[in-house]
């Protein structure tokens, strides 16, 4: 089996350059590629276009890249919980393109699956539909939306094997599988990297063909945004 | 006078029928889960990729890898399933979710909804709201009948940027339960202590009042 | 959790009528809903439109429905290995619509996911593209293809639970997951039906929301078309 | 004279490079798997939903739930993965598969291919062929240079119904190895004992011969 293993984040991110379009997995802070984000900070690449459902919080996740002014444009569905983001947006330093969450997920899926465009009802009749082709099917109006692709995709999985196969845990799956398929180069960081053959072929969430580089990440903080508990 | 948030949630819970898959928005809709009657089996969908959302975890069961769309830590239930965001919105777009309950800033008498953007204010994004309102077979809005300045939120036309057109079927406010019909807001129930005249005054859009309007039973 | 269990195939197929459009999972004879096909035979419903990648063999799978003249139209990607099929087609008793396999899979997926149409390069410039809208994206030509849905979908899984969650085994997965989502009523037959809670939520291939009725099948023959072996 | 099926497969195997994901069609292409050189790691994709196709099983390992696109019983390998048909063709359409090897009835000098239908004969269907040829980055055709009646299968224009336009990059026949260029079929290698004149005679489409044409090395 083809071996996709690289030593660490540094090796995994070789080739990342200014002005690239990146996809970063995660929903809120759940399932984000923490190690790759740290390496992006270290590299200091700038003018990035980041496609990610959210933009992190002030001092974690993509928020860290915003603080260092590495991001020129965010493509997201929801960018709350981030004061620095708001400041840059209002000052014009940062551009933002807001996309309905399902449309975002499907446009990324389309990018990976070779579908240049599709029709969705989301956003028809709203400002999201302005300038877009719309069409009626079975008496309902739909917008045509195009695929999204990235120069690099950064995803985070629970387990992975040397062949690049990935298994996600819980709702940390979210956008990661589609982004893995939509990146020209996909970097997967995993909590546990195992030899090919240890994962059940039947239980793979992302087949290794989509992953070009895989490494075992370290020091996962896995910060929780809303710790809500009940008493037993 | 009028219903409080929990009472609005409790009233909406009566709309939730056995066997339904339900998506609950953030805010009052989330409270609905607390009032689903005994014996009514429903499955809650969280659009970040979970069917069968359980209660908040006890302290020892908190898992950073298990959150809902409001980013709160949650639990699974026996029979839950987890999937990607593409699958999740396929489920929503494909009309597999039976009922969506969400908040709104404005609803028009045609059933248009505005709930994602206030011009001049920081825009946080629509999240999954546009997908949900464009696709759900049945949408109930939970909201206050009027804004803080007393102006109506049930309008002839929405003044704020639209989230979706002609999609809202029912509205439960602090003052009333209303159905969106071809002719306007049809008054179904009034909150205890609230008169039809109170509701009329608080409703800018066309209000249809036919016969006696019963009090909300919760 | 909502309980989707029904007693048997007979109860599961209640409501199936003449002239309906049915989807049947499987690739060749691998992963076909054997029990549901038997019940379709017993019911004797006719003038069916069957959407299935293949049409079975003469004496097994959908071939059995063809023998009893229950099928008016097949929508498939490949219909070889079936002499009765050929006879009915040439005599005009049977109509067939051939669709490229990937387009078939994606049209079914679109049906379940609420996407009325999408663009694919498959079939452009061939007779498959005749009468269809085509369009250029990034210098390449694509055909617009529309969703497929069914009145009933019949799928076969390895394990299922009472909530309707399904796990497939090996390449018996094939078209089953997309068909489960594209049926107005989806009937799942499984080799082993377990109580809700016994399957890992993280390892579900088809979430229960897509399945309206589930039952434990019996007497699976699982016929092999090409038994190919090597000596140890 | 000329290459037999196994020799064609063996020659094609030299085109398979380390690290490639490869889809092999039915017939001669399937044989290519037998000749992939030691040390060249490739992953075979079977479009019915498997990456990492292994050899046929021993009798005791035969599993009806594990077949390839030719419906043959097969095995998995360490690192294999299994997925749905939609995912499989997403992989193909999204150009994640590096190389596709398939058979053909006709190839035109523009790189068009016909391999799914003969008018007047029972049409079995295109299976995944149209998806594969519309999407693959690199397609090699394995075929006989001429039909049984001696007529060329390398044509100016395909006469049979088309499977895909301008998609074939390379052809390996019993007589020759050819590249499809803007100007026609460029002769790269000739089979042992076959002359350039033999190939010219068997090729209806434009044949480009530049310099000495070496013999196929297998």
Estimated share of beta-strand residues of chain B: 15-25%
How confident overall, as mean pLDDT of chain A? 96
Instruction: Tell me the strand percentage band of chain A.
Output: 25-35%
- In which range does the helix fraction of chain B lie? 10-25%
Molecular shape of chain B: globular
- How much is the average pLDDT of chain B? 96
Largest sheet of chain B, in brief, is:
10 strands, mixed
What's the number of helices of chain A?
A: 6
Give the end-to-end Cα distance of chain A, rounded to a whole number of Å. Answer: 48 Å
The shape of chain A is globular
Largest interface: A-B, 56 and 51 residues
Q: What class would the helix/strand composition of chain B place it in?
A: alpha/beta
Order of helices and strands of chain A: HEHEHEHEHEEEEEHEE
- Main sheet specs of chain A: 8 strands, mixed
Give a verbal description of the structure.
The complex is a heterotetramer, with two copies of chain A (232 residues) and two copies of chain B (218 residues). In chain A, helix 5 (101-113) runs parallel beside helix 6. The model of chain A has no long low-confidence stretch (mean pLDDT 96). Chain A is globular, with a radius of gyration of 18 Å. In chain A, strands 1, 2, 3, 4, 8, 9, 10 and 11 form an eight-stranded mixed sheet that branches. Chain A has a three-stranded antiparallel sheet with strand order 5-7-6. Chain A is 21% helix and 27% strand. Chain A has six helices and eleven strands. Chain A has helices at residues 9-12, 34-43, 62-67, 83-91, 101-113, 176-182, and strands at 21-24, 48-51, 71-76, 95-98, 117-120, 134-137, 140-146, 150-161, 166-167, 183-194, 213-216. In chain B, 17% of the residues lie in helices and 24% in strands. In chain B, a hairpin with a 2-residue loop joins strand 11 (176-181) and strand 12 (184-190). Chain B is globular and about 50 Å long. The relative contact order of chain B is 0.16. Classes of the chains: A alpha/beta (232), B alpha/beta (218). The interface between A and B is large, with 56 and 51 residues.
